[in-house]
Amino acid sequence: MNEILSAQKEGVLTLTFNRPAKMNAINLAMYSELVAQLRSAATNSEVRAVLFVAEGPHFTAGNDIFDFLENPGVDMDAVGFQFIFELHNFPKPLIAVVQGSAVGIGTTMLLHCDVVLATPTAVFSLPFVTLGLVPEAGSSYLFPALVGYQRAAEILFTGKSFDAQAGKEMGLVGTIAQDALEQGIAVAAQIASQPPTAVTNTKALLKSASHHAVTEVIKAEGALFGMALHSDEARDALMKFAKRRGAL
Q: Which of 16, 100, 98 is nearest to 50 (CA)?
């Protein structure tokens, strides 16, 4: 079964997490496909926007912990970091529709999206410290810039989750609706119908003030993430987490 589905219609490339039996936990093969799809879409004039959605009741449980422990790629060439950089540098609008759990990268990737919609079931979680790790995807810069330092620090230090309403209050989510998927499809189509150069130039301007800073933070996070991952603290925490999730 293809764990990343892709479909292109009227200027919108829809990428679907399709591993519902594992809460759409992202493995290396899925990261590779996401990277390939985004790289192709970035230069394809027929793609004007990308929409991230998910099959089943959950957006994504984040990294597949078992896969991650078996293949802990932590340098900048690792496919997980390639995905982060593709999101960060993607020149066209990114839209996401979230339902259920959005864990780790499932939340941090949203910080790179231009429009985020959620159903009332959405629950966001950034359990990096709980796992003996550090934040990734530029979230140690982007999250406090979005929600304020103290709120970001509390969430990151404790690993506590927050619901869709809190996400909207923080600015992580723009719209909460039962029909978030239908609304997300409509928003993506509306954006795709706009003059494409004007859209990409506007996104570049919106991101220009922080783009370089976020690039440097992603690199710094990656270095610390790699060091943390090789620690006994992180290995023990990740093993416990995987066992609780039934991944091992």
A: 16
170, 122 Cβ separation under 8 angstroms: no
Measured CA to CA, the distance from residue 156 to residue 145 in angstroms comes to 14
Tell me the C-alpha to C-alpha distance, in Å, between residue 24 and each of 9, 89, 195: 23, 24, 34
CATH number at residue 147: 3.90.226.10
Q: What are the tens digits of pLDDT across the range 28-86?
A: 999 999 999 999 999 999 999 999 999 999 999 998 877 776 666 666 778 999 999 99
The answer to whether the CB of 110 falls within 8 A of the CB of 127 is no
**Number of alpha helices (DSSP H) and beta strands (DSSP E) in the chain:** 11, 9
Domain hosting 63: range is 4-180
